[in-house]
Amino acid sequence: MSDQHRASDDAPIAYSKTAKPDGALVEEAVTIARPASELYQFWRDQTKLAEVMENVVSITPEGADRFRWTVKAPGDKEVSWVAAITNDIPDRELTWQSEDGGDIDNSGRIRFEEAGARGTVVRATIAYDPPAGFVGQIVAKLFQREPRIQARRDLHRFKQLMETGEITTSARTQRQRENRNEDQTATRQLEESRA
To answer: Which pTM does this prediction carry?
Structure first.
């Protein structure tokens, strides 16, 4: 995004009056049985989000309120960008905007809305320009790497972690296997020999 564009409209893409019409807009929400302040504190430490977000390879600080995100993409590739927090209302809302030079131009907002005895509604709104436009968006969907799919999954994983202290899965994730240095060939052979 050019400096000239930012000067005329400095709102995140999701709320911009001059956003490109070919960009994608995603909004997902989940109700979590926890107070907004607790959920906000977890989300505010951006590096913790890599625990929850399945396709996030890493999130590293790049300075005050700036973080480098590296995310899995289709075809065993990775994309990266630096996101700057542009608005921070403690216990209520965080907004961000990717900086120039990243692989994917994106912005968004995460809101924490009190829901009485039910806890807190966590609402994520993400705007992004898919690489290769509409075709790239379709390819990302096929590989389960499209932001709408991931936002829904990641919010439910966040809910599990915050309500139970763990994220349940029916099988080991790729990251868990890599961390344990498991040889998938040996595991597969063992499973086949039991059948």
So the answer is: 0.70
